[in-house]
């Protein structure tokens, strides 16, 4: 991910999601690494399509992040109210407290889902990875037809493959 697909994502601030990333997130030992990849491509403003057999795990992860944020926000609000009450007679101190807490609140935002579209495939212990390829084969075939390319005869295919 580091130097290949991630480098192709146009992460221009405010730009629409112009790069489509397909991520296969399956319930296997690579799951944590793929969730990290999901974070990275989402932060670079890619249009993320997730193909998964473990949507429940991804959703749980999102809900946990949301709970952590809400707990943090509640604590921040409580601390803010306490500090304001302590500095109630000092307008200068009150102003500093407001600025401090506004800055902290801006730095952290409510988590959002990190994918734009999801294709869920059945979880079949040892064959989920094979089953997850089928939607991509159909997608690629349709894209080739839309572009007017015959997927059975790709351009620039080496002679050694065709002979």
Structure report:
This protein is mostly helical and 163 residues long. It has one domain (5-162). Helices cover 54% and strands 10% of the residues. It is built from 7 helices and 3 strands; from the N terminus they run αβαβααβααα. It has a 3-stranded parallel β-sheet with strand order 1-2-3, covered by helices on one side. β1 (20-25), α2 (31-43) and β2 (47-52) form a beta-alpha-beta unit. α3 runs antiparallel to α4. It is elongated and about 80 Å long. The two termini are 34 Å apart. The model has no long low-confidence stretch (mean pLDDT 78).
In short:
The protein has helices spanning 5-8, 31-43, 55-86, 91-107, 128-131, 133-146, 159-162; strands at residues 20-25, 47-52, 117-120. By secondary structure, the chain is mainly α. The protein starts with a helix and ends with a helix.
The major pleated sheet works out as: 3 strands, parallel
- What's the arrangement of strands in the largest beta sheet? 1-2-3
Radius of gyration: 23 Å
Anisotropy-based shape: elongated
Oligomer: single chain
Helix count, per DSSP?
A: 7
Please write the string of helix (H) and strand (E) elements.
Answer: HEHEHHEHHH
